[in-house]
Structure formats: structure tokens, C-alpha cells
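Per reviewer request, we include the raw input and output of the structure prediction for the construct analysed in the revised manuscript.
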Amino acid sequence: MMRKIVGMLFLYLFIFSCKNEKTKINYLQQEEVQLVQPRIIASNTVIDSFVTIKADRNIDGTTVFYTEDGTEPTKESTKFSGEIKVKEPKELKFKAFHNNFKASETASIKLYQKGHSANSIEWFTNVNKKYLGSGNTTVINGKKASLEYNNSQWMGFDTIAKATVKFDKKTYLKSIDIGYLNDPGSWIFPPSEIKVIVNEKDKLTFQLEPLKTLTDREMMNFTVPINQEVSTLHISIKNVEQIPDWHEGNGNKAWLFMDEWIFN
């Protein structure tokens, strides 16, 4: 009888131990699961008066925190409460937290101030037929692209890009921001050279530092200083003619992808 009782007690302790261990394992596995990045939804990324930002939470119990100065969000940062309105250009970063899961990777969005509107643009080289953007005015339509190179706001060139931009009246410009995509993993490289002729007379030439290694996909821009009244701009943006030796696609033509040109 005593052996039977001891056996039953042992069996009970064994089952309880297994259940307890299973709970621990499940809990540890849950803590090792990382939350998905918050999905950021912006009414626009070019600010006219203001832009509305929303961010999806992943699952119940998730809290999203954000920063507006480009720093990494923590649980001490500003708590996201559903929607914010942004009136000034800045970079916002969002991160999701949950008591039972690993914090998400950081999601970020950069907002730009809308500049002066150009009257027209005329292209002297052809955009590649696969990547036409939203038409000839893609780079002056007041819209930024997303990180995906097949987004409708990217114009893709496999050669030099040349265009003339005109303003309906003389406009004082401090600078031009030339927006481009850096995605060497997809054979998309920054420009190698940018030339601007202001009002048919003043010539500006800028050489860009070539990439020396594979980098993450990133939306970037190059600022061209102007600081004068402008009626016409001849803009020439040269692509990397050959992918460099360190890249697996070496020897092939590199792509140049551009979105908005902002006239500040």
C-alpha cells in the first residue's frame, strides 16, 4: 500500500514538474519572439501645412514609443497615442514594446519641408521604361517615394539624367535637395556627379564620394547651394558608369533612382 502511495506521489510530482517546465519553456520561447516593426502611415512625407502620422500596433498589449530628434526610442520616450500632426521637417523613430516579447526593430520616417514649386521640367535623357515613376513631373510633384525601388515615385535611370527646370517668375532659392536611393544590394548607387547651371550662366559641379562597401538601403539627398534668384536650372546627374570591383555585379551598369527635387 505504501509503495502504491509513494508511486502515485512520484507520478504527481513528475506531471507537475513537466507542466511547470513546459510553462517555463513556453514563456522563454515567447520572450525570444521579437515584435514586428510598427507600420508607419503618413499622409505625406513632404510638409505643406502639416502631415498626419499614424502607426499600427502589432498585437494587444503592445505600446509604441517614438522620438522626434533621430534618437532611438525607449520606454522613457514619448508614448504614441494613435495619431500625431507634424508641422516641421524632422526624422521620427518608432519602436514597439511588450512585456512578454522582445522589442521591435526601430521604424523611422523622415519628413521634408515643401519648397518652391517649379513651373515645368523638360527631360533630355530618357528614364528607363521599367521605372517611369508617375510621369515626367515625378521629381517636382511634391511627393517623396518609399524605400521600395518599385514605388511609383522613383524614376530609374541606367545612364546620365539631364533636365531643365523652369519657374514662372524669378524665385530666390537657397538650395536644391536632390533625392535619391542608395541600395547597392539592388545595383542602385548614389550619383557620381551633379552639375547645375543657374540662369544659363553660373555653373556648379559636385563630385560625390563613391561607395566602398555594401550598405543598407537608404533614402538620401544631396544639397546643392544656390543662394540667388532663379528662372531656369539645367540639372545633370551622372550615374555610376560601372559597378565597382568589390560588388558581385562588378562591371555592369549601376542604376540611378531619384524621387523629389526640393527647391528651398
